[in-house]
């Protein structure tokens, strides 16, 4: 099946068909473009939705701690990744399908125009041959008629007896001339006819089939390209299905991670004050006055003294207890009046002191109407009074706050110690290689680092003293072990789920194993042992031996990953592909940072 043999006379139809094919290709390209815009808008709306509902972590106290909140934020992260995959689909379609279609449509238009021009030229040449043949035919026909007229004129003169001989000879010459011209035109017409027939055969059996074959191949390639684009359109979606499935699995795992028991325990840990519930009120018998004997005598001194002792004992018991909301009875009892203190006597005549019901009302009113001594956490978040030692908080909350501060100070101390070590290494390198830098220039930074270390150690010591005071007041869970070396961040004692440390195994609260130094699930986000992400790469300009501890040897031209930028000390932390890490001089390398390194987590 060939267009050249089957459609030899359908040039205009093929012209329209090929134009329709290009229009269809461009229409499909427009469809893909609109699909790309839908994917981009969808991804943008998803990212805006995630951004809208993501927490604004202004302070560490507002970080989500409940498993339901953490699960929701994990779902938001997975949804953000899902939006990223929709962007990948849009980019793949734009590059692999839409861009390819537009380029191919342009090439197709150019090729079609060239083939059609060739066909029109061939048709024009054939038309020119036909015109030449037709002109020679008409000329031959005209000369033949003139020759016939000359012959008739000659025969008429020849038969006319009145005609002179000169007229007959002239007519004869005219006949011979016309006959000769007719023969020449006949030969020319025959040649032109033969030439036209040859060109016509060549046109319809060679030239036109070749042009139509090229048009057919062009149209078939267009069809194949559409098929490839259809497949690429589907592959763009299919490639991201595994990652989208992982995002959905992450959402399911986040839903399974919700633990109502743990959330309830967090509520207890967040709001537990550490105070004991108020004790029982002492029984005061007011029925004794029923049996009191009518007597105007006064109470004896010994009876009165014993009554005073009983009263003090009663008030002392009330003072020794912890009251609700941290409110204790006032140290001095209200003044005793005749209505609040009276004497009673038993049937045998003995007298004793009793309290009326007014002191009970007084205590209850103090509990109900007295303002709590401890400000609420909401008022603290709004900028309420906050003391350095957290003495405004309940004991349990104060202990946790102090423990968190100590952990933060320990981390800062570790950073300063690492910086000190790096400065000492750099100083050693400068001393061995003076051309790299002046060792004296590092002395101010070393002095500042040492001051920071001393300040942090004093802060840790002060907070540990406050923590010991709180633990001693609340009974503690055992003596907290103080490490002589502040640089160690993990204590050797036992850690309860509430974050307190104890050496007594009998006092340890049984629960799920927790890592030392972690006091909430949320800290795991910041404390993991995964390798640092690569934020760029570098190329060694000069070789470096790296004999000192902590440095990384490199060869000239070697490419390394950057995992930590130069902090102003002249050293950059790098890593090889085999995982070996160390510091290299910043002046020895050509650093290239990734554009998305800020905030990105791209593990190499």
UniProtKB/TrEMBL annotation:
<keyword id="KW-0175">Coiled coil</keyword>
<dbReference type="InterPro" id="IPR035494">
    <property type="entry name" value="FNBP1L_F-BAR"/>
</dbReference>
<dbReference type="InterPro" id="IPR027267">
    <property type="entry name" value="AH/BAR_dom_sf"/>
</dbReference>
<feature type="domain" description="F-BAR">
    <location>
        <begin position="1"/>
        <end position="263"/>
    </location>
</feature>
<dbReference type="InterPro" id="IPR001060">
    <property type="entry name" value="FCH_dom"/>
</dbReference>
<dbReference type="GO" id="GO:0005938">
    <property type="term" value="C:cell cortex"/>
</dbReference>
<dbReference type="InterPro" id="IPR001452">
    <property type="entry name" value="SH3_domain"/>
</dbReference>
<dbReference type="InterPro" id="IPR036028">
    <property type="entry name" value="SH3-like_dom_sf"/>
</dbReference>
<dbReference type="Pfam" id="PF25610">
    <property type="entry name" value="HR1_TOCA"/>
</dbReference>
<dbReference type="Pfam" id="PF00018">
    <property type="entry name" value="SH3_1"/>
</dbReference>
<dbReference type="InterPro" id="IPR035493">
    <property type="entry name" value="FNBP1L_SH3"/>
</dbReference>
<feature type="coiled-coil region">
    <location>
        <begin position="399"/>
        <end position="433"/>
    </location>
</feature>
<dbReference type="GO" id="GO:0007165">
    <property type="term" value="P:signal transduction"/>
</dbReference>
<dbReference type="InterPro" id="IPR057871">
    <property type="entry name" value="HR1_CIP4_FNBP1L"/>
</dbReference>
<feature type="region of interest" description="Disordered">
    <location>
        <begin position="471"/>
        <end position="528"/>
    </location>
</feature>
<dbReference type="GO" id="GO:0005886">
    <property type="term" value="C:plasma membrane"/>
</dbReference>
<dbReference type="GO" id="GO:0006897">
    <property type="term" value="P:endocytosis"/>
</dbReference>
<keyword id="KW-1003">Cell membrane</keyword>
<keyword id="KW-0472">Membrane</keyword>
<dbReference type="GO" id="GO:0006914">
    <property type="term" value="P:autophagy"/>
</dbReference>
<dbReference type="InterPro" id="IPR031160">
    <property type="entry name" value="F_BAR_dom"/>
</dbReference>
<dbReference type="GO" id="GO:0031410">
    <property type="term" value="C:cytoplasmic vesicle"/>
</dbReference>
<keyword id="KW-0072">Autophagy</keyword>
<dbReference type="GO" id="GO:0005856">
    <property type="term" value="C:cytoskeleton"/>
</dbReference>
<dbReference type="GO" id="GO:0008289">
    <property type="term" value="F:lipid binding"/>
</dbReference>
<keyword id="KW-0728">SH3 domain</keyword>
<keyword id="KW-0968">Cytoplasmic vesicle</keyword>
<keyword id="KW-0254">Endocytosis</keyword>
<feature type="domain" description="REM-1">
    <location>
        <begin position="392"/>
        <end position="469"/>
    </location>
</feature>
<keyword id="KW-0446">Lipid-binding</keyword>
<dbReference type="InterPro" id="IPR057870">
    <property type="entry name" value="HR1_TOCA"/>
</dbReference>
<feature type="compositionally biased region" description="Basic and acidic residues">
    <location>
        <begin position="471"/>
        <end position="485"/>
    </location>
</feature>
<keyword id="KW-0206">Cytoskeleton</keyword>
<dbReference type="InterPro" id="IPR011072">
    <property type="entry name" value="HR1_rho-bd"/>
</dbReference>
<keyword id="KW-0963">Cytoplasm</keyword>
<feature type="domain" description="SH3">
    <location>
        <begin position="533"/>
        <end position="594"/>
    </location>
</feature>
<comment type="similarity">
    <text>Belongs to the FNBP1 family.</text>
</comment>
<dbReference type="Pfam" id="PF00611">
    <property type="entry name" value="FCH"/>
</dbReference>
<feature type="coiled-coil region">
    <location>
        <begin position="130"/>
        <end position="174"/>
    </location>
</feature>
<protein>
    <recommendedName>
        <fullName>Formin-binding protein 1-like</fullName>
    </recommendedName>
</protein>
